[in-house]
Design brief:
Length: about 140
């Protein structure tokens, strides 16, 4: 598997609890390199666009409200098989189902406030990275 890039977000529940560094330590220990990173306040429009695939789900409003409730850290991660590797270190969406040692097992508060986002495919990673970063902000 070649070197890939994936998109990551450290969500408001984690930034609120000052866990940015703790999450980054887990990502780096998993062999992922943070090649771009910035702390932003996501707007409602950005959150609605980002999670458009979930717009018909009952939790959509709650999700948008959560993602705009406090700053987030958006990131580009690089490494061998980065999309899958990041999904592995994140753990399952619901922290009660997440494996030991994963970010969500250790830090997530609930299925909604689950500390991190990670792209689920290389195709979506490309789309998500482009929503938040221009090419010259990514330095591998
Ligand atoms: P992910 O790829 O593991 O982040 O999971 P999904 O793509 O299925 O869901 C996207 C995000 O929506 C999750 O990370 C949660 O923050 C949120 N979410 C998913 N399911 C629920 C739910 O049942 N309730 C609430 N409040 N939020 C949810």
């Amino acid at each position: 598997m070649a070197v890939q890039r994936t998109f990551s977000i450290i969500k408001p529940d984690a930034t609120n609890r000052n866990l940015t560094g703790a999450v980054n330590a887990k990502l780096e220990a998993a062999g992922l390199r943070i090649v771009a990173q910035k702390r932003i306040q996501m707007t409602q429009a950005q959150a609605e666009t980002f999670y458009a695939v979930h717009s018909e789900r009952p939790f959509f409003g709650e999700l948008v409200e959560f993602m705009t409730s406090a700053p987030v850290v958006v990131q580009v991660l690089e490494g061998e098989n980065a999309v899958l590797k990041n999904r592995e270190v994140m753990g399952a969406t619901n922290p009660s189902e997440a494996a030991e040692g994963t970010i969500r097992k250790e830090f997530a508060l609930s299925i909604g406030e689950n500390s991190v986002h990670g792209s689920d495919s290389e195709e979506n990673a490309t789309i998500e990275i482009a929503q938040f970063f221009s090419g010259n902000e990514i330095v591998g």
